[in-house]
Each structure stands twice: as structure tokens, then as C-alpha cells.
Design brief:
- The protein is 65% helix and 0% strand.
- The chain is mostly helical.
- The chain has 7 helices and no strands.
- The chain is globular and about 55 Å long.
Length: 205
């Protein structure tokens, strides 16, 4: 599986009545590249929790990065984060719908059935951090694995609200923008997710 490809200036389309000065364009491109480089690993983790497949997760994240660069590069940088996650969540849901259709179609065919929930190794988990002692690292990995298992069992909207608020640190308003819903809905989904996770995880977290 290849690594991430951060969009470059060549991907960026500048729409508008008049092009911005070259220096402004270059500065916006550098800022966007920096933003994408900082967000890609967390976005990959979120996509893999939802999709359970590293290749699908990588495809969705890269497609999200490209769409943000093509369609929203000129927007203020403060708007990029919620826009990015809205595109990402839409991409995840689109892929899940395609999986569902493919799975229903496969049930009509003879032979072994495709298993879209096949658990694949997380490439991020395979990178050891030498600064962490082995027992502590194992405990952290076990806790994270248990959390991810519990997150996968949540309804999709609850999982989105929890991960955007806790993994990415979005506030309620930004999460509402990313999820395409009201702030009240975000609070409801988040509260229910926290309640369920506390019951399931107990003293682990």
C-alpha cells in the first residue's frame, strides 16, 4: 500500500473573476499543504475505524484531500477543517453504501461471498515508538483496540460526533458543519456515544 500523497499546487484550481497575485497563491498553497500534512494520519485513523480496511481508508482520505484542494483552496483556512471532515464523512458513507449494494448483489451469485468487514492490520499500529516502554505500549494498544471495537459498534452519527470532537478536537459548531446537522444534534449524538462507551469500556478508559 502506498503512502499518502499530499496535494501540490498543480492540483489546485483557483476560481474567481480574477486570479490572486502569485505570492498570495503560493502562500495559500503552502498553508494548504501544511494543513493536509498535519491532518492526514488522524483522518486515516478515523476512516479505518469506520471502514475496517486500510486500503479503502487511504483511498477515501486521498480523495478527500484532492476534493478539498480543488474546490475549497481559496476559502479561509479556518474553514478547511470542518469542510475536510464533511467531505471525508460523505466519502465514507458513499463507500459503505457501495459495499452494501455489492454485498446484496453477491448474495445472488454462487461461490464464496465477499467479506467487507475483513480486519486488516493497521499500518500505523505497526510503527513502534521507541520512546514508550513495551509494557506501556502494549497497554495503550490494547486500550485503543478496545476503543476502536466499541466505536465500530456505535451508530454512524454517534461515532462521527465522538471522533470529531475527541480525536480531532472540533468544537460543537465545527462538528455540526462537518456532519451537516444542527449543533443540538451534535450534542445529542455525542452524549449518547459517551454514555455507551463508558458502559462498554469501564475502567479501561
Amino acid at each position: 500500500m502506498s503512502g499518502f500523497d499530499t496535494p501540490t499546487a498543480a492540483w489546485t484550481v483557483w476560481d474567481g473573476p480574477a486570479p490572486a497575485p502569485r505570492g498570495v497563491v503560493l502562500e495559500q498553497t503552502r498553508e494548504l499543504d501544511k494543513f493536509l500534512a498535519e491532518i492526514e494520519r488522524r483522518a486515516f485513523r478515523m476512516a479505518q475505524v469506520a471502514l475496517r480496511d486500510p486500503d479503502d481508508a487511504l483511498d477515501v482520505v486521498q480523495d478527500t484531500m484532492l476534493k478539498l484542494a480543488l474546490n475549497y483552496a481559496q476559502r479561509p483556512s479556518a474553514e478547511w477543517r470542518p469542510l475536510f471532515y464533511r467531505i471525508l464523512e460523505n466519502g465514507i458513507r458513499d463507500l459503505q453504501r457501495r459495499r452494501s449494494v455489492r454485498k446484496r448483489f453477491m448474495t445472488w451469485l454462487p461461490g464464496p461471498k465477499e467479506d467487507p468487514d475483513n480486519e486488516a492490520q493497521d499500518p500505523i499500529d505497526s510503527v513502534a515508538d521507541s520512546a514508550i516502554a513495551v509494557p506501556e505500549q502494549l497497554m495503550q494498544e490494547q486500550a485503543m483496540n478496545k476503543l476502536e471495537t466499541s466505536l465500530r459498534e456505535l451508530p454512524a452519527r454517534q461515532r462521527e460526533a465522538f471522533m470529531l470532537r475527541n480525536f480531532e478536537g472540533l468544537d460543537v459548531a465545527e462538528t455540526a458543519t462537518a456532519m451537516g446537522c444542527s449543533q443540538g444534534s451534535v450534542k445529542t449524538h455525542y452524549s449518547r456515544a459517551v454514555h455507551t462507551l463508558r458502559k462498554q469500556l469501564g475502567e479501561v478508559w
